Amino acid sequence: MDRTRFFVRVSAIYALIGSFMGSHMAGGGGSQLSAVHAHILVVGWLSLFAFAIFYKVFSIPKTSKLASFHVWSSFIGVFGLTTGMWLYNTQPIEGIETLNLIFFIVGGTILLIAFVCFAIMAFVHGKFISEE
């Protein structure tokens, strides 16, 4: 799998969703979903794009299990957090409020684990990270 291409494409989707939400909120005059909009842009677009740049700039081995775990936990965590936030804030289906909250918390926790994994990877694969 090309990690850079994957992260750039997924981040582009989040950029479109976040931009659309911002336009919709601006046009409609409501800001009820501004936290969801901000998280979609920050963790969905910016973080995933930054990870794409990281994998493009530094030669992290393609066989790294840590890098593979980072890619998938980032993807699942961003999806879970942003979707969970949206579900929690909009409550589109009556009677599943607890499930919405669990989705939100589990997604956020997986994303936190992805960021911890990224920090660990910066040290484990430190020899590949240089200005040369």
TrEMBL record:
Keyword DNA-binding found: no
Domain of life from the UniProt record: Bacteria
SUPFAM superfamilies linked to this entry: Cytochrome c oxidase subunit I-like (SSF81442)
InterPro entries per record: Cyt_c_oxase-like_su1_sf
UniProtKB keywords: Membrane, Transmembrane, Transmembrane helix
TM helices/strands, residue ranges: 7-26, 38-57, 69-89, 101-124
UniProt KW Membrane keyword: yes
Protein's recorded name: Cytochrome-c oxidase
Organism listed in the record: Halobacillus campisalis
Lineage: Bacteria, Bacillati, Bacillota, Bacilli, Bacillales
